[in-house]
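tl;dr need the bound structure. longer version: we got a ligand (guanosine-5'-diphosphate) that a collaborator sent over and nobodys looked at where it sits. i said id run it. heres the input, straight from their email, havent touched it
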Amino acid sequence: MSEKIDIQTVDFLGSFKKLSQCPAKMMPEYAFIGRSNVGKSSVINHILNRKQIAHVSSTPGKTQSLNYYEINQRWRIVDLPGYGYARVSKKERKKWEGMIASYLRHREFLVCAFLLIDFSISPQRIDLEQAEWLAENQVPFHLLFTKSDKIKPAKREAQLKIFVETFLETWSSMPTYFVTSASKHEGRDAILQNISRINTSFYKQ
Ligand code: GDP
């Protein structure tokens, strides 16, 4: 049985630029990763039920650090810088890739990454490549579709089918996914239940 998650406390632990600076106390961590503007800050605020804990629409490409939130002093969300922002220099991009890759590959408390994908547009190559990178590097992850409200309810199933079919061109099965809308407050319970299940097994070990 998984516990029901009430968000009692959310503490911002800080922004870290290196893996070696990340909090040392053992706790399950959930990384949120996605293209700039995918709706990452909004979905984190939505999940945590806080209006402005994650900064919505901070200049894309400027927040080059790992932002740490601790929930109920029991688990953490790590907000990773958005990728795919055209205006950052090659050098900046390399630095980004280095930091993110190092975090995702080596952080021992990372139990699951949520790869955010904009549900309201067609599947993007860069997101598919990111999913492949996670799999190749053995990072457990789920897909988290954002902005579902931008697709009319009658068309959502067809849109989901497009994503599933695109994934199945290269994947043997569809990764676990969640469809969310921060604007309409949808999808939160399923994500929290999933986190709760993983937390339970983490603390049992
Ligand atoms: P981030 O750059 O990935 O952190 O994205 P933000 O959370 O700052 O959101 C980027 C833009 O998308 C903002 O204009 C948000 O208002 C908008 N947005 C985010 N989530 C949703 C959503 O669920 N529905 C709609 N319609 N817009 C959203």
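gonna send this back to them w/ a short note. The beta strands are 10-16, 29-34, 66-71, 75-79, 110-118, 141-146, 177-179.
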